[in-house]
């Protein structure tokens, strides 16, 4: 399986990249973004772009991939709705529109968030924008899935670019194992998100929107993956 990965330098993207590189069924990863991953690995190549809204000049480099894992995003803190949408709506839809043309029918997995508003009419700004993003991606000629994680625990040294989230993670780090046991429907990990993406890319899923609990369920399957079973 050949994978496109957007947002590989963010906390979730770092975890997803790790799982892709460790998975024997993944043969190639192209990490697309503004800065390089700075990871040396025979499976991995960086594609550095200054403009993440335009892909006309690099379409040939995006062709021939089986799945796209879209982990790029920005916090709503300190941003207007227009500023937030310019990142969290415009970029994933530009990517999805390009890939629907270059690789029609490919698997496209978008990391959204628990509480996303599919009606696009709610009072919470970020939830409306992400709901619009999900809806627009699901309309494209892609085999698209929306991941809605809630509380995410970094498992292998992944670091968030958001200061407030780094503080939150440090605060809750001692009790993450307890939270996972008490609230399995609300807590996941960077490892589980990556493994769940690989499972869905290989086998699909009956639901196009996976809430936190279903992400964890999908992650359990890929832990026992073998090329003989899944191909």
Topology (SSEs and partners):
Blueprint: E1 2-6, H1 11-22, E2 28-33, E3 44-48, H2 59-62, E4 67-70, H3 81-88, H4 90-102, E5 107-111, H5 125-138, E6 143-148, E7 151-153, H6 163-172, H7 176-182, E8 187-189, H8 190-203, E9 209-211, H9 212-222, H10 227-230
Helix pairs in contact: 1-8, 3-5, 8-9
Task: Give your account of this protein's structure.
This protein has 231 residues and is of the alpha/beta class. 42% of the residues lie in helices and 17% in strands. It is built from 10 helices and 9 strands. It has helices spanning 11-22, 59-62, 81-88, 90-102, 125-138, 163-172, 176-182, 190-203, 212-222, 227-230, and strands at 2-6, 28-33, 44-48, 67-70, 107-111, 143-148, 151-153, 187-189, 209-211. The strands form 2 sheets. The protein has a 7-stranded parallel sheet with strand order 3-2-1-4-5-6-9, with helices on both faces. Strands 7-8 form a two-stranded parallel sheet. The longest helix has 14 residues, at 125-138. The protein is globular, with a radius of gyration of 17 Å. Mean pLDDT is 90; it is low at 224-231.
């Amino acid at each position: 399986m050949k994978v496109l990965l957007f947002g590989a330098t963010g906390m979730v993207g770092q975890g997803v990249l790790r799982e892709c590189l460790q998975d024997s069924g993944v043969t190639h990863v192209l990490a697309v973004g503004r800065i390089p991953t700075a990871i040396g690995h025979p499976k991995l190549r960086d594609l550095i772009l200054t403009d993440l809204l335009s892909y006309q000049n690099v379409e040939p480099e995006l062709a021939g991939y089986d799945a796209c894992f879209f982990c790029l995003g920005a916090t709503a803190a300190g941003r207007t709705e227009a500023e937030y949408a310019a990142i969290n709506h415009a970029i994933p839809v530009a990517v999805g529109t390009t890939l629907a043309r270059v690789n029609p029918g490919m698997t496209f997995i978008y990391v959204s968030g628990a509480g996303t508003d599919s009606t696009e009419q709610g009072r919470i700004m970020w939830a409306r924008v992400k709901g619009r993003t999900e809806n627009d991606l699901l309309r494209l000629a892609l085999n698209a899935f929306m991941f809605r994680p809630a509380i995410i625990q970094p498992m292998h040294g992944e670091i968030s670019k958001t200061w407030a989230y780094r503080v939150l993670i440090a605060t809750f780090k001692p009790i993450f194992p307890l939270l996972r046991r008490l609230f399995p429907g609300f807590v996941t990990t960077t490892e589980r998100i990556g493994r769940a993406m690989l499972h869905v890319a290989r086998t699909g899923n009956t639901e196009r929107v996976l809430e936190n609990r279903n992400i964890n369920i999908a992650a359990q399957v890929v832990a026992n993956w073998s090329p003989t079973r899944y191909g």
